[in-house]
Write a structure and sequence with these properties.
The chain has 182 residues and is an alpha+beta fold. The chain has six helices and eight strands. It has two domains: 71 residues, BMC (bacterial microcompartment) domain (Alpha-Beta Plaits); 101 residues, 2-Layer Sandwich (Alpha-Beta Plaits). Helix 1 runs antiparallel to helix 2 and helix 4 packs across helix 5. This is BMC domain-containing protein.
């Protein structure tokens, strides 16, 4: 079980690949994702114990802060976030949907983690920068009041970094909308 995850997001693909190598060499971390994203950016997501992930992210940040879009360290990642990154969680009874749209992959993952820790919501889907100009979004589900609370907290996390594009809460979403999101 991963206790912490960390991510760096670079403007340069070459710098991202270099950071991936540096992060793996700096501390005992597992590279979870190391790949290009739109529009020509690169992300490296690592997991492990808190101290190792902290060292790894710190090393990557020191490599080239001027070429970095965003980064994070989440010391106690909520267990529902990693499956959402990998493709989504199945949700049976959708009372409301919330969408948090950001300018970076890092801020979307941070917003999702904050939302699920703040309210009784589940991340339904995360779309991370592929084919949408580098933007990302997370869709959360739960009861209306919980979704409103989760979207508010997650949006504050992204907004504090200047990365929030938009947020919305949709009570009782139409069945076709839910089907297309799954």
């Amino acid at each position: 079980m991963l206790h912490a995850i960390g991510l760096v997001e670079f403007l340069s693909i070459a710098r991202g690949i270099e950071a991936s190598d540096l992060m793996a060499k700096t501390a005992e971390v597992q590279i979870l994702v190391s790949k290009t994203i739109c529009p020509g950016k690169y992300i490296v997501l690592v997991g492990g114990d808190i101290a190792s992930v902290t060292q790894s992210v710190k090393a990557a940040r020191a490599l080239d802060e001027s070429n970095m879009v965003d980064h994070f360290l989440i010391p106690n990642i909520h267990p529902s976030v990693l499956p959402a990154i990998a493709g989504g969680n199945s949700v049976v009874d959708v009372q409301a949907l919330g969408v948090i749209e950001t300018y970076s992959v890092a801020s979307t993952i941070e917003a999702a983690d904050a939302a699920v820790k703040a309210a009784k919501v589940e991340p339904v889907r995360m779309h991370l920068a592929f084919g949408i100009g580098g933007k990302s979004y997370v869709v959360i589900s739960g009861e209306v009041a919980d979704v409103e609370a989760g979207v508010r907290v997650g949006s504050e996390v992204a907004g504090d970094k200047g990365m929030l594009v938009h947020r919305v809460v949709i009570p009782r979403p139409h069945k076709q909308v839910i089907e297309h999101l799954m």
